[in-house]
Amino acid sequence: MALEALRTRCRAWKHRHLLGTRELSADDLLLVLSVAEDLAALGEEAAPLRGRRLFTFFVEPSTRTKTSFVLAARRLGAEVIDFSPSSSSLAKGESLKDTARTIESMGVHFTAIRHGASGAPHFLSRLVRSSVVNAGDGAHEHPTQALLDLLTIRQRLGRLSGLRVALVGDIAHSRVARSNLWALRKLGNEVTLVGPPTLVPRDLDAPATHDFDRALREHDVVMMLRLQLERQQAGLFPSIPEYVRFFGLTRERLALLRPGAIVMHPGPMNRGVEICAEAADSDRSVILHQVANGVRVRAAVLLLLSEAAS
Ligand code: CP
Questions:
Q1: Whose CA is nearest to atom 1 of ligand 1?
Q2: Which residues contact 145 (CB under 8 A, 6 or more apart)?
Q3: What phi and psi values does residue 147 have, to the nearest 5 degrees?
Q4: Which residues, in sequence order, are bridge partners of residue 193?
Q5: Of 56, 64, 20, whose CA–CA distance to 266 is shortest?
Q6: Which atom of ligand 1 is nearest to the CA of 136?
Q7: Which of 24-33, 194-203, 294-303 is predicted least confidently?
Q8: Cα 162 from Cα 150, distance rounded (Å)
Q9: What is the pLDDT confidence band of residue 233, given thresholds at 50, 70 and 90?
Q10: Lowest mean pLDDT among 36-45, 49-58, 103-112
């Protein structure tokens, strides 16, 4: 598809910011995926974001998300303003608001923000002129991760509705779980939460089970979630070996997967905790495919936001 035709299709997108999947319709979700695939098919010479700037405002660590935003922006011809919290004036006590507005006054069109506080991107979106993308806020949402997961599921299983998806592990602290739950359901999939009662919140209004072995036999997609030890208070489970015994995707459990089922993980992985090395590197694993789709989906998001702002 030619770039101009793709840009015309992007005009169906009406959101100035991308803050979460909860606010997106099924049509919005599918539009991002189709733009991602069409952009990937365009020649490298197409640079629809030339003259635009992306500010990567990451106050929490990231490998995949930040790198893929940078690659996506450069792929489309945009410049990137990188940010390192420890060497910035945030370390001298400058506020989030002043930092964002200071950088923005130098000319910024997109701000991709990652922050430990739920709602930080929403707060920022009310203060700045650029389009804000939530790159992960606390335990709330990580919408571009869910979008790249959707694209991966569709590419690997050939469809994106009528599937049974298990989200497994530390749901309580997982922004990936929330964004995926809301997105997958909008597209007509069944989502089950699997984990110990202390790590599966009741307010998510989704079926839950503690029987991981049974879940493995019944689901088309098994999405393992990182045990977020840095966010946990003591006492949510007895010990790591005990957690692995009941909720680790071990070599033995890998054999319980139904034929054709795929294993996902947003990364970073705790190998030997929620997922063993054999499972992470097996032919059921689509983990590196997820990473590759991160660049495609984030490029699509930047193009859609750019068209909505123009
Ligand atoms: N999945 C994810 O958000 O990974 P990073 O923390 O490395 O960005």
A1: 266
A2: 65, 136, 175, 176, 179, 180, 266, 294
A3: -65, -40
A4: 167, 208
A5: 64
A6: 3
A7: 194-203
A8: 13
A9: low
A10: 36-45
**62 C-beta closer than 6 A to ligand 1:** yes
Tokens of 235: 């006492």
Q: How far apart are the first and last CA of the chain?
A: 21
C-alpha 12/C-alpha 27 separation (Å) is 9
Q: Whose CA is nearest to atom 5 of ligand 1?
A: 62
| 221-224 β-sheet, strand order | 208-209, 190-194, 164-168, 221-224, 262-264
120 pLDDT band, cuts 50/70/90, is very high
Rounded CA separation 24/151 (Å): 16
Which segment of 18-27, 43-52, 97-106 scores lowest on mean pLDDT? Answer: 43-52
Give the type of residue at 279.
A
DSSP type of residue 4: H
Beta strands in 139-265 (DSSP E): 164-168, 190-194, 208-209, 221-224, 262-264
- CB 282, CB 222: distance < 8 Å: no
User: Whose alpha carbon is nearest atom 6 of ligand 1?
Assistant: 62
Q: Please, are residues 153 and 221 in contact by the beta-carbon 8 Å criterion?
A: yes
Measure the CA angle with vertex 120, ends 114 and 122; round to 5°. Answer: 115
Q: Which atom of ligand 1 is nearest to the CA of 267?
A: 1
Which tokens go with 225?
A: 């979630």
Q: Which of 304, 263, 297, 22 is nearest to 156 (CA)?
A: 263
Indicate if the pLDDT at residue 291 is higher than 70.
yes
Enumerate long-range contacts of 10-16, CB under 8 Å, 24 or more apart.
10/35, 10/303, 10/304, 10/307, 10/308, 11/307, 11/308, 13/304, 13/305, 13/307, 13/308, 14/308, 15/304, 15/305, 15/308, 16/125, 16/131, 16/305, 16/308, 16/309
Q: How many CB atoms lie within 10 A of CB 77?
A: 14
